[in-house]
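Margin note from the TA: students keep mixing up input and output lines. Inputs are the sequences; the output is the structure of the whole complex. Example:
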Amino acid sequence: MFAAPGMSTTYGLHRALLLNGAGTATMFLDQRRSWGEIGERVARFAAAILELGVARGDRVGVLMLNQDRYLELYLAIAWAGAVIVPLNIRWSVIENEDALRDCRPKLLVVDLAFAEMGVELSNRIDGLALIYADDPPAAALPPGTLNYEALIAATEPVEDARAAETDLAGIFYTGGTTGRSKGVMLSHRNLMSNARNAAGEWGRIDNPVYLHAAPMFHLADAGAMYGHLITGAAHAVIRNFSADAVAEAIDMFKVTDTLLVPTMIQMVADNPGLERYDVSSLRRINYGASPMSEAVLDRAMARLPGVEFLQSYGMTELSPIACFLPWKDHIGEARAKGRHRSGGRPTTGVEVRIVDTLDTPLPVGEIGEIVARGDTVMMGYWERPEETAKAVIDGWMHTGDAGYRDADGYFYVVDRLKDMIISGGENIYSVEVERCLAQHPAVAQCAVFGIPDPRWGEAVHATVMKKSGTEVTADELITFCKDRIAGYKCPRSVTIQAELLPMSGAGKILKREMRKPYWMETSRGVN
Amino acid sequence: MFAAPGMSTTYGLHRALLLNGAGTATMFLDQRRSWGEIGERVARFAAAILELGVARGDRVGVLMLNQDRYLELYLAIAWAGAVIVPLNIRWSVIENEDALRDCRPKLLVVDLAFAEMGVELSNRIDGLALIYADDPPAAALPPGTLNYEALIAATEPVEDARAAETDLAGIFYTGGTTGRSKGVMLSHRNLMSNARNAAGEWGRIDNPVYLHAAPMFHLADAGAMYGHLITGAAHAVIRNFSADAVAEAIDMFKVTDTLLVPTMIQMVADNPGLERYDVSSLRRINYGASPMSEAVLDRAMARLPGVEFLQSYGMTELSPIACFLPWKDHIGEARAKGRHRSGGRPTTGVEVRIVDTLDTPLPVGEIGEIVARGDTVMMGYWERPEETAKAVIDGWMHTGDAGYRDADGYFYVVDRLKDMIISGGENIYSVEVERCLAQHPAVAQCAVFGIPDPRWGEAVHATVMKKSGTEVTADELITFCKDRIAGYKCPRSVTIQAELLPMSGAGKILKREMRKPYWMETSRGVN
């Protein structure tokens, strides 16, 4: 019997080449490329890395701000049958070194912004060759550094390696509860199934243009990219998010679709200069990481009339989407019912349910852990079979989110079981920040948790018990963290006290007790 | 590493139970059932057939006109882990007997219309038990015949067997070029991938209601059913197609979506009584089997304003859809370019190309065979590995259609390589009709082919050389066929001659030569 082959993540490129070879593929600064050109460049860069010794299944790291070549890299690395490892642009050298030592890529691709860090990483890690992929010359690069454009120019295109759908396509690092980040392994099928689900939820519009405004290393944007690849959209790219850059890009590139986190939506909507741009082409904003507050939704609707907002709820381990909340649930009767506060309903290829600690499904209204099953569940954590086995049980990915569902199948997230903070769309594991603070000589005890922040959703807060006989300030502790972990993970505020932190009889710090006063006034963080 | 499980065809039911348990699932005559009720009935009927000895992978035949229980059967047989075999309601006893002997089901489910044929089949085939699934009592049934409702009432529900996605879900019989019908084996994944593709092309509308107007045994309607199961639509059902029944059902059930072949669309649009019904709820008609003629498209647009037409091109072996032609390609500039005459562009999970006889891909504009690849390609023909190997080469399903593609990736069907006639949406293999005619004592030679028909697209025509010394009329030959093969396959017209048919040097009848004069005036059948 014949087993039908599934899709590699290059499928969207093949489809675009067939349907729309002369059409616009990417728009970045003054650069426009057609699908025909992208196809040629992808096949050449794939050939180049194969010649450099990358074999099927080998990893290739990418550490870049957004640009059009990032899209090419996602496609070319898959075209070569290799595995992309998009690195977090906010991470410190140490954090990125950890990830690279973990998954051992042969190549690391960097842009101008990360040329210096790239050199540092390639010095620290034996056998890690560097490719520079940007337009301005980078002073920091040692002679002999490989150049992306030179490689493309010097290499003949190869055929698509046509990775099997069960092959590993990418490793996406997430913060880990143990303090070390874990590599989420996603197969071609994982990513393409998510793309099909998302494309189905979006529906079809004429001449879609997707704007990469969120960082392209992040699976939120990459997931949208795969979806828009199969619907045949053009890809507009801005280097970095800013409220002005988004508005300008929408105007210049006639953007129809983008993906932002609520913090970004707020900044776009609150931009006093928004009226300087024609943003009337924009039709849909897909947002994630958290629901939008009433205030942000109202302001965004007022400032961006005609734009439909669509929420997706998920996590990297789910490729990443489990639920969608369509536009109609943000307005009218549905809003009156509070549906805009939910994470939505399971998308068309995923099962979602609420279970208790014994994995028994719970009925409507009861709070338990949100678990999800389907062909978008990750292959596992890279070289961490025990953590994989803990996360994926009988096919169900355990999200670590506490929530409930209503009678109509809407899921509501009420808390996180994992000790995690979401600030500006980034996941921050408290334990990692606590481990850093604990290294300071004046810190006796500490607890890190999220507190409400009008701009970032949550802000990282630390409460510290200082050792007797020592003196330390909040600023000193924040600076101490900034030297060791990514800036976005560092506490924004620190409370320092001489007394012990509140603890349970078993000696566990009662973080929930400590969080409560900060969250009394808000609708989230219900315990 | 963890291999994410795919979906069984019961997925849509689980999703509906979660999202919309109290919502309407089926509407048929005066009967309304909620998803909760359907879930209960499905789990009970699955239990019943398991108790009757149906094991995982066993086949269950269904021979019924449309009704709400047909939807339950698709779901319940999958729920039991068994394989549905929907039989063609237009086939003769002999043809259905052939199919049943081929795939050897243990059970056959029939309705009132097929009670008599069911008894005949169960008499002819040892070990084939009969289940009657209809409301009026059927006089023809022998005592002891099993009753669908009695089985449901007497059995406790079981858990879903959760078929693996690679398990066989259904066998769909198609006419065979060899004159014997072949069982197309479709896996759960085949059907669910097609459902995801289709649901993506349709997009989401509020409160969808799908009308089963085409026969539910046919994969065109069943494919739409699986798609609408994952979008959460309600299912309205009419027993048989008629122009009046469709209009009445749209009015009564507030239908938003249906699937018809162009012949049916024409009948609905030309119905002089259409104005008696309120059909304003109807938003989309998905049609297939062939493009719509200019005249039918114009009349349909005029009589059904506000309805969008969407074509799908495919075949049973592709689960069934390869290409979609959206509404926008039926109007305006696209129509001026003639796009409404194409079969559309590859859907988001399928690759389509044109190849020559050596399977080399052909460039834009060149005519060759249309082949398609993806996870919707069938598992094969039931117990026919050689025919499977001929049809599926390197993953590519060879459609037997000749066509070309344009620079924008639109595929145009220009001819059928297989000697097949499509009349009123049904595939008729000429060889089967020729084999029947050849058994008549007066027939020396015959050729059967399609000729243009304003109502059915094509009509079956036979040209016969009579044996010298015999006399025979067209009516006699048509009656002869009607006694032996399904009515829709029988010639509508017969030309009788004393001379040899035109033949090639190798002695092959030049059917193309014979077809040509009939097709001179039309745009199809270009050679």
